[in-house]
Amino acid sequence: xxxxxxxxxxxxxxxxxxxxxxxxxxxxxxxxxxxxxxxxxxxxxxxxxxxxxxxxxxxxxxxxxxxxxxxxxxxxxxxxxxxxxxxxxxxxxxxxxxxxxxxxxxxxxxxxxxxxxxxxxxxxxxxxxxxxxxxxxxxxxxxxxxxxxxxxxxxxxxxxxxxxxxxxxxxxxxxxxxxxxxxxxxxxxxxxxxxxxxxxxxxxxxxxxxxxxxxxxxxxxxxxxxxxxxxxxxxxxxxxxxxxxxxxxxxxxxxxxxxxxxxxxxxxxxxxxxxxxxxxxxxxxxxxxxxxxxxxxxxxxxxxxxxxxxxxxxxxxxxxxxxxxxxxxxxxxxxxxxxxxxxxxxxxxxxxxxxxxxxxxxxxxxxxxxxxxxxxxxxxxxxxxxxxxxxxxxxxxxxxxxxxxxxxxxxxxxxxxxxxxxxxxxxxxxxxxxxxxxxxxxxxxxxxxxxxxxxxxxxxxxxxxxxxxxxxxxxxxxxxxxxxxxxxxxxxxxxxxxxxxxxxxxxxxxxxxxxxxxxxxxxxxxxxxxxxxxxxxxxxxxxxxxxxxxxxxxxxxxxxxxxxxxxxxxxxxxxxxxxxxxxxxxxxxxxxxxxxxxxxxxxxxxxxxxxxxxxxx
Length: 617
Ligand code: F6R
Prior knowledge:
Elements: E1 3-8, H1 13-23, E2 31-37, E3 43-49, H2 52-59, E4 68-74, E5 89-90, E6 96-104, H3 107-116, H4 126-141, H5 145-153, E7 158-166, E8 173-178, E9 183-186, E10 192-195, E11 207-209, E12 216-219, E13 227-230, E14 236-237, E15 241-243, H6 259-265, H7 267-275, E16 279-280, E17 285-286, H8 289-293, H9 295-299, E18 303-308, H10 310-327, E19 331-335, H11 336-339, E20 350-356, H12 362-373, E21 377-382, H13 388-392, E22 395-398, H14 411-430, H15 436-458, H16 460-470, E23 475-480, H17 485-499, E24 502-507, E25 525-528, H18 535-546, E26 552-557, H19 563-566, E27 569-573, H20 581-599
Parallel strand pairs: 18-19, 18-20, 20-21, 21-22, 23-24, 23-25, 25-26, 26-27
Antiparallel strand pairs: 1-4, 1-10, 2-3, 2-4, 5-6, 6-7, 7-8, 8-12, 9-10, 9-11, 11-15, 12-13, 13-14, 16-17
Helix pairs in contact: 3-4, 4-5, 7-14, 7-15, 10-14, 10-17, 14-20, 15-20, 16-20, 17-20
The structure holds fructose -6-phosphate.
């Protein structure tokens, strides 16, 4: 949801900023811009409608020397994606430029006040109001840029991460955040790198500061003051520098055509990483630190309430089946965007599980506050360390999937499901619902996950061929029963997101209550028909579809000889404990969506209208 970068250092800022933006395009790519204070002290801003490559084509031709600057890649919230609404936005006097990720909620009120004071606005954005407000405060209090930013924070509501420059203070960039992600890298030579996540920072340094809400940082080279940080009340704070243990090439494509493809193929390794130190085969034991340290809270939970969005919500749905069946614990799964406004009844004995790849999804973050106020225990399942959800939760588990760049979530999902199954197993075992034998069998099957996923990936060419037959389709159905119903939803979401084919996910048994009306040869169905859940009933449902001339692809258990005689295509997955089967069945559906999108020539990693991290409502 918009990416911001900033740089101040010894190099030319322009190439650093452009390559930084490239890393952040997954956050939005409908317009982009860069602002630099040139060596002659002038502030130069270049903006385009379109992505970073277009910005580069335009801005490369112009002079862009200078060692301090800011840049932005946008996912439009206020105002259409055009050059005027693109960032950086300038103050009326032309001295200050600002890039912003997030939403200023009281911008209409502020805009009215500033207009009354003679300020004019060129764009429709809330961000331009913020830069004018900062400029107004700088003039009113005759203070520095950093001080003006700090004062302005008192007058704005909403969420933001900003980077600001002022041509009257060259060699310095000011940055601040509230409820939006922001990282500041500190290079060994004192250069500073600002970004919405660490990907643009890692090629330069691994020493990173994660500012808290309402911290304001003034960044310059050490001889000009270095890194100075204060809170909203102007009190100086010492920045805490964290060493990030991730290499820059962990975020590159590794020879794959797309990040999504790479991320699908990384899943065997992701499973290994996620289990390392947690699934202890030799000891026949699972060790999940968050559970071990909070056993009573988990085991005495009156219910588990899972709150999440999108693909993470699907992981929650998979977990619901397991919490109820294997840990005998009531479980509800909520869309975070609904939960936050629904005034739900929250019990102090609830365990609220917030699942989020990014850890920065605004709706999921907002769900934490009421849960905490009600005294519930908040447990985060996140992929990004130090993210807002990780920091707000009472306990958390990192999914350890590595950075996910493809907008459509894949490896983060399978890692989320795996972590949740570990938790269920721990609870089920401790509550005596899961016997020792089943617990050990589950552990044995868990460690087989990487090789099972490898097996599915090795059959990719068959999936590619099948994908080619789907290119003319306008609509599809995905069906599954029990814990495969969420996988049907996830398969449908994946194909919608990246290939723009309309698809619906349904519980297979629900077919005859309506969706069956859609069946015709042009509307193919993907039916998850593994041996572990109501197999015979699924076979009957398949027959109902066939009787209406529906085309069917079945996801079946390896060794199944029935389905290949019935349906048009069969994709096989190895047999495994039913709790883990969703981790396997989702993989062919990810590949299917990927190959359909590639076949249709769609932009797989940057699907239209989407952004990776939805940090606004
Ligand atoms: C779908 C997808 C989204 C996210 C959703 C929540 O492929 O990626 O549906 O799952 O926006 O994001 P996180 O998990 O970061 O909270």
